[in-house]
What does this fold into?
Amino acid sequence: MYKIKHIVSQGLEHIELQSPTQDSTALICLAEGGRLRHFIFEHTTVIANETSQGYTQNYASAILFPFANRIKDGRYTFNDVQYVLDCNEIDNNNALHGLVYNKVFKCVDQSFGTDSASVTLDYTYDGAIKGFPFKFHIQLVYTLHKVGIDGSVTVVNTGKTSFPFTLGWHPYFTSSNLKQSHIDFKSDIKYTYDHQQILSGSIPLYTDMPLRLGDVTLDDGYPLQSQSIWFTTPAYAMEIHCMSRENYLQLYTPEQPHSIAIEPMTGAANNFNNRIGLQQLDPAQRYQTAWHITINTTHTTII
It folds into this structure.
């Protein structure tokens, strides 16, 4: 039988999903935007809590909403009205990674059985920030099961006006040896960036796949031509299957060794301004997407 435990760690409330033999566990932090802080699958660490920086610096496993990645100078225009967000990326003077990554979510439902354990988390935003005066309700569902873990996000516009949005996720995946790991995805375009790390254009992507990680340094974005991203390490092979209609990918190699941020998004960086993948949610309407992570720890192939 799968299990669910409520834990207080470092003064913060967590929920841990456990497999029957406890060889797979998923630790979710409610006070840090409902993020998946730590994930072990069949005794293999897949997501580790980043320790080289604080969470407000690395955003490890943060849910990114109502925007993912950066907004240049925190400024955007929607329906002919200009809005200004606080710039939490100080060095580049950008608004970064949305408004819910540091909010406290509450557990509103949980279930477990012989095949899975699932928890549902909620947060309601009242539109108090001048840079985004639009009300919404966001719900996260994490499900640990026999072949991996699923995460779904549902957003409801609870206000009286439409608002723009992008949705993303910022997990750091661990490898026992990043130099012997690779990532595979389908795209023919790589975005280019300016001195603020703001999307400035694109170039053809001629990189052979799979992309060997080796000693490369990445902070790059791509529009995807499929719904799947594959990551292979010496210890496990993983597929992230994205349920969005349009899918984008950001790859980032942090200072901490043997980890990589593989960030699925529904739009490109700065899309409140460049409109690449930008969507609009009307009053009383909902938007839902999910990421299905399938992991194999017994058959990995390093090319």
Observations:
- The mean pLDDT is 95.
- The two ends are 37 Å apart (CA to CA).
- The chain has one domain: 3-296.
- Residues 3-296 form a domain with the Beta-galactosidase; Chain A, domain 5 fold (CATH 2.70.98.10).
